[in-house]
Sequence to fold (796 residues):
Amino acid sequence: MSTRMSQPSSKPPHASAPVFFDPSGKRWRRILYSLLAAILTAILSVVGILPGATAPLWKGQLNQSPEYPRKLLATGDQNNIPTLGRDTDFVFDRIALVQRAGNKVLLKDPFSDTVYREADADEKELIGTHTYVIDSYGHPADRQLMLTFDDGPDARFTPEVLDLLSKEGVPATFFTVGRNIVKNPDVFKRIIREGHMVGNHTMFHSDFWAHDDAYNREAIIGADRVMRATDNYATRLFRIPSGDPENNTLALLQAQQLGFLHINMDLDTRDWDHPQGEPVPVPELDGKGHVVLVHDAGGDRTATINMLKTLIPRAKAQGYTFSTVQPLLPNEYVPQRITPSVDDHLTLATYTSALVTPNVVITWLFWFGIGSLTVLTFLYVVLALINNRRQKRRRWDAIPEQDWPFVSVVLPVYNEERVVEKTLAALQVSNYPRFEVIAVNDGSTDNTLAVLRDYARTWPQLRVLDQPNRGKSEASNNGIFHSQGEVVVTLDGDTLFERQTIRMFARHFCVDDGGKKLGAVAGHVKVGNRRSFLTAWQSLEYLSGICVTRMAEGLMGAISIVPGACAAWRREALIRAGGYSTDTLAEDADLTLSLQQLGYRIVQENKAVAWTEAPMTVTGLAKQRLRWTYGNIQTIYKHRGMIFNPRYGALGLLTLPYAVLSVLVPLLFMPMTIVVAAINLSHGEWQAIALFAVFVAGTHLIISTVAVIMVREDPSHLLMVPMYRLIYEPLRAYVIFGATLQALRGRVVGWYRPERTNSVQLSVATESDGVATESDGVTVTVPAFVTGQDPRTSAA
Fold:
C-alpha cells in the first residue's frame, strides 16, 4: 500500500455564517408580528362568534339576566322549598313565583306574565310565606311505561340499546350529553332516525352549583346548538344531571329561564349504582304509569341491557305499553326539525375541534407510534444482528506493518488541563504501529498548553499546535490540514481510546470492498463515568444507539453521524469536503452527510472503543443536548436536498425523513398529547397511556438486550430500561422546543463544555483483532459498565 501523503493545505476553509443565524433580528420580529396577528385574529373571531353561539334559543319575556336565578333563589330558604303536586304528579318540574291577590295564592311563571294556576287550600298552608315553590305536574296513564336513557350517546352501548328497542318495537326518550353527541354524531342521528325523542342533559353533565352562571348557561345552550347542527333537531326537554330537582334548584331555574322543561322520573332502576359484573334487578311494576330512569352511557351498561331484556317482555305481558314522553307534552315543548343557523354550526365546529380533533390526532399518533416502533424495531434489530454477524465472521488478512496506512490522530483541546494527560497516555500505549498525534490547543486559558508541551518532550509522536480560540471545528481543521496521514482519527480531549482502537479503525482502510470508496469509520463511544442514575441513563442511550441503530444503518449504507469523539476519516475525503464546517453545531453530523454527498461510504466498527465523560448534572445534560439538537436541526436543514432523494438510498429515504419526523411530530403534537393525556388521567382513563408506555419500554428492552448481547456488555444496563422515559421525555421536550425557538430567533446556541471531573477510567484488558492483550504499563483504568442510545446516531 502506498504511503505517499497529500500535502497539507496552507489554511482552513473560509468560515461561513451559522445556519439560521440572523444578526438583524428581522426574522424573529416577522415571526412575532405574524404570531400576534394570528392571536388577534383568533380573539376577534371568538369575540365575533361568542355572542351568537351563547345566545339563548328560547327567549322568555321577563327576567332574562343571567344573574336572576341566583338572586331569586336567595330570597327564600333554599334548604326548605315547598314542593307542590309531588304526591300524584311528578313528570314535569318548574319554579313558580308565589303571587298573593286577596285570599288567592297564584303560581306564576318567573319569566313571563303567565299564571300557571291557583294554589288549593292544602297548598296555601304548605306555601306559607315562601316567595317561590317547586311545582310538579303531569303523570303517565296507568300501565304506561316511558323509558328514559341518560348520559349517551355511547359508541358501544347506545347502539346495543337501540337494537333491543328496535327488536321490541319500544320508543324511548334519550337525555343526551352534548360532549357525547360531538364524539358520536352517527349514534345520535340513529336515535332520532328510529323515532325516539331526545332531551338536553347539558354539554358536560354539569354540576350547576359548582360553576358560575356563564358556564351553566353555555352547558345548556351549547348542547342545544350541537343537536341542531348535528341533525337539525331542536328540543326544549331537559333533565338535570344527577336529577333531584329539589336539591338542584339552580339547574332547574336556569334551564327554565332558557325556555326548557324539566323531565323527572319516578322509577329509578339505579343501574348506575351497581358495580361492573353485578346484575341490575328488574323493577317491580304496580299497574301504574311510570317514567323509568336507565342509562346508556357513563360506564359498562351490559347489566342494564340485560335487565331491559327481561323488563320489556315482562311489562308487555302485564299489559303495559311504551311511549316517549310526548303524550304528556304541551305542544310548544314537542321537539321539532329546524334549519341550523351559522351559530349552531360554529358551535359544533368549536366543540369538535376541542373534543374530537385532539383525540383523533392522538389516536393516529398512538397507532403511528405503535406501528413505526414495531416496524423499525424489527427492521433495525434484524439488520443490526445481520451486520454484527457479518463483522464477526469476517476474516481480516494479516497486513504487513509497512502496509498499514500512516494515521494522524487529531486532538483539539480547550481547557483540558485535568484530563488531557490521561487521554495522551491512552493513545501512547496504542498497539498501532504507524501514527502521529497532533494536539491543537484552541487558546486554552488554563495550563493545557504547558501539559501538552511537557508530554511532547518525552513522546516524539506528539506534535503540539497552538492557536487563538476559534472553536472546536477550526481547531480540528487546523490539525487535519497539518496532518501527514492517509487516515485521520479524531477524538475529544476527555476521551480515552482503548489500546486496539486505532488498529480497528485503520484495518478498514487497508482493504477494498468494491463499490463506493470508504470515507469514514464510526467508532463505539462508551460512558466511562457511570456512577449515578443520570450517567447510567446516558450509558444505556449510547449503547443501544450505537450497537443497534448505527449497526443497522451501517448495513443499509445510511449512517447519518460519525461521532467526532471516536472516528476515522480518509484524509482525502476530508480535504474534498473542506474539513469540519463552522456553520452548524453538529459538525460531525454535517461532515458525515457531506462525505455521503460526495459519494463516500461509511461503516461502523464496534471494536474501536472510546470512553468519554458524560454530564453528571441535569443542567449539564440539558445544555449538551440542546446544542446537539440545535446542531442536528441545522444539519438537516443544510442538507435538506438529501431528504427523500433516492440517490442516497436508505439514508435519504429512511434515516433522514425519520429524523425530520422525530423533530416535527413532538414539536407539533407534544403539547396536545400532554393535555389530552392529563384529561384522560383525570377521568381515570389511563389504560391507553399505560399500554403505550409498556409497549415503548418493551421495544426499548428488546433493543437494549440485543445491544448488550452484541457487544457483551454488563446486563445490569437493562435495569435502567423501565426508568428510561422519566428522563428521556422531559429532556426531549426541552431540547426540541428550545432548539426550535433559538433557530427561529436566529441566535447561535453556545458551545457547552461540561466541567471535567477526570472520572473516566480505562480497563487494562483490551482487544486487538479479536485477541485479548495487556496494555503495557498503562496506569489508567476504565469500568466495564455502560448503557445507552447514542443521541449522535441520528440526525435528530
